Amino acid sequence: MTALPPKTISGIQDREDERVIPMTRRPDGTFRKERKIRPGYTPPEDVAKYTNRVLESVRPTPTPTAPAAATADANSTPKSKTQLKNDKRKAKRKEEAVAAELAGYPVATNNSMPKSTTATDSTAAAAATESTENAAAATGPVDPEKKLRALNKKLRQVEQLKERQAKGETMLPEQIEKIDKMDDLLAQIAEMSL
């Protein structure tokens, strides 16, 4: 009986005076030719991983950790400023949602759609005005100076749009609507100035 020659990880066999990759069968049934390997060549699969015996003896062996222990370590690390800000924002959103539910108007969240009403148009309009008043009351008093600055900003934007329209630029329907609301803006500014 003849013993099989030693085989490497890459499949290279050592014969009397040469190294070869033996003939193999392809999935379709044909054969690959036997290939000779240059003397001194070592394929990447056969290169041994470098190990340092001294470091290996000193290095502690890793112990498996429980998933619960990993989460406890993650929770014990201090949070960054951004994470703290995000946590505060989430808490504030939750408080606002609870206040909105108590006020009686629906709140849209990422997971659910707003509740639909079965009221007629006139009652729906009345409910909408009440809900906006409730929203204003829930958020607190609005600073009149802040509101006036916002109205003046809108007025400046409308004036810029009018100038562009006078020059002959084409306007989008939204821009035309904004120009049409200029009288309302002026009336609100006059009311706030008193």
UniProtKB/TrEMBL annotation:
PANTHER family xref list: PARTNER OF Y14 AND MAGO, PYM PROTEIN
Residue span of region Disordered: 1-146
SMART domains documented for this protein: Mago-bind
Biased composition regions of type Low complexity, renumbered to the chain: 116-139
Record-annotated WIBG Mago-binding domain positions: 17-43
Superkingdom to which the source organism belongs: Eukaryota
Pfam families, alphabetized: Mago-bind (PF09282)
Biased composition (Basic and acidic residues): 13-32
Name listed for the protein in its UniProt record: WIBG Mago-binding domain-containing protein
InterPro entries: PYM1, WIBG_mago-bd, WIBG_N_sf
Organism encoding this protein: Linnemannia gamsii
Compositional bias annotation for Polar residues: 73-83
